[in-house]
């Protein structure tokens, strides 16, 4: 269904990262998420781990209800920003949305039918504190298309260097090495969609 790679940078002096990821199969396909707990250190990690656990346990739900449920359980925490994508393999469709500043880019394996690169529209807010109006964007996808998610510890210009053909783990490691800011936790998730009906 998916071939993926993850690279994570923990801010020096902190015991654990406030950034978490999720790549899990569900009934219709896969759910991919990158989650950034507000701030860094243990409190940020606790918030992002709680969000990741809820997403993993409810991966079959529509993504808007997933974000709304995260918002409810994170009210007593610092909150998180996140971007997530739900891939319906049988229909060849992906629904994605972002709250905060976790960047999302889809690179198409075959750009003959339109844009080679699609960027996720991010809405300002914090899950657990200030939830904006939520609206997912639906895109057609094909086998070999590659999804990139990166938290704000990664500079936004990473998107200029992407290819759907690069090995996902190599791509995640390269982006983190070349584009991390160094003053925050950083996480890159790269997921190539291999199980799409075409």
CATH class value: Alpha Beta
Mean pLDDT: 92
Helix-strand pattern:
EEEHHEEEEEEEHE
Class based on secondary structure composition and strand pairing: alpha+beta
> Biggest sheet, open or closed, and with what strands and sense?
6 strands, mixed
Tally of individual domains: 1
The best one-word shape is: globular
Quote the CATH topology. Phosphatase 2c, domain 1
Low-confidence stretches: none
What is the CATH architecture descriptor? 4-Layer Sandwich
Radius of gyration: 15 Å
Q: Enumerate how many helices there are, as a single number.
A: 3
Instruction: Tell me what portion of residues adopts beta-strand conformation.
Output: 25-35%
What is the distance, rounded to the nearest whole angstrom, between the alpha carbons of the first and last residues? Answer: 13 Å
CATH H level: which superfamily?
Answer: PPM-type phosphatase domain
**Which percent bin holds the helix content?**
10-25%
Describe the structure.
This protein is an alpha+beta fold. Helix content is 20%, strand content 34%. It has three helices and eleven strands, in the order E-E-E-H-H-E-E-E-E-E-E-E-H-E. It has helices at residues 42-57, 63-73, 168-179; strands at 2-9, 19-25, 29-37, 80-88, 93-99, 103-107, 117-119, 122-123, 137-140, 146-150, 186-193. The strands form two sheets. Strands 2, 3, 4, 5, 8 and 9 form a six-stranded mixed beta sheet that branches. Strands 1-11-10-6-7 form a five-stranded antiparallel beta sheet, covered by helices on one side. A hairpin with a 4-residue loop joins strand 4 (80-88) and strand 5 (93-99). The longest helix is centred in the N-terminal third of the chain and has 16 residues, at 42-57. The protein is globular, with a radius of gyration of 15 Å. The two termini are 13 Å apart. The mean pLDDT is 92.
């Amino acid at each position: 269904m998916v071939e993926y790679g993850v690279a994570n940078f923990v801010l020096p002096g902190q015991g654990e990262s406030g950034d978490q990821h999720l790549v899990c199969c569900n009934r219709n396909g896969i759910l991919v998420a990158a989650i950034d707990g507000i701030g860094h250190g243990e409190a940020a990690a606790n918030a992002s781990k709680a969000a990741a656990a809820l997403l993993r346990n409810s991966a079959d739900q529509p993504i808007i209800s997933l974000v709304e449920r995260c918002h409810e359980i994170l009210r007593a925490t610092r909150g998180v920003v996140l971007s997530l994508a739900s891939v319906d393999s049988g229909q060849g469709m992906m629904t994605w949305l972002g709250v905060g500043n976790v960047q999302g880019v889809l690179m198409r394996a075959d750009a003959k039918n339109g844009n080679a690169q699609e960027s996720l529209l991010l809405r300002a807010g914090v899950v657990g504190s200030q939830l904006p109006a939520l609206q997912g964007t639906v895109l057609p996808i094909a086998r070999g298309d590659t999804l990139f998610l990166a938290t704000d510890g990664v500079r936004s210009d990473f998107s200029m260097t992407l290819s759907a053909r690069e090995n996902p783990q190599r791509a995640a490691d390269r982006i983190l090495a070349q584009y991390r800011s160094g003053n925050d936790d950083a996480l890159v998730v790269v997921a190539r969609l291999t199980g799409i009906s075409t």
